[in-house]
Task: structure prediction
Amino acid sequence: MSTLTIELPPQRTQTDFNLRRWAELLADPAMQKFVGRVETDRYGHAFMSPPAAADHGGFQSEISFFLRQLLKEGRVHVECPVSTADGVRVADVAWASPKCVRERGKLIVFPTAPEICVEVLSPDNTAPEMREKAALYFDAGAQEVWHCSKSGKMAFFTLIAGRTAPLNKSKLCPDFPSQITLR
Result:
């Protein structure tokens, strides 16, 4: 297997383009009728996913609940658009500190990733896709990326020496459970 390296533009350079393109998509009447997730690539091309299964939303809800309970400061976002070097990606759940929320201001996309970006894995997600998305969130400024498996098992990651590294538990929210149970 050969390795392909793609050099992406600096995240800061891409953000201005991402903000303009996201505003265009939000204003497009045809896009307003679409039900599901929309993200973009670095060229502004939109790609869409169908609505997630019920359990996916259940995990988003439970994760949001725990984050609100455990991190009183800051704000929890569901379906959070984040400007990355490869377009706008949408974190299933994110937690942003008051400083991050202030920096976003009235912008429709987070120009810098919230401190915690969470992905609830869907059946069609691949490991390389999740590693790539985590790398994009870290490049955009996330401090931790979490994955919630289809069974509710949580995995926590941070960036150490430029590489994604697993954590036994979150450093930003150490009391967050390692297993999410849908009620």
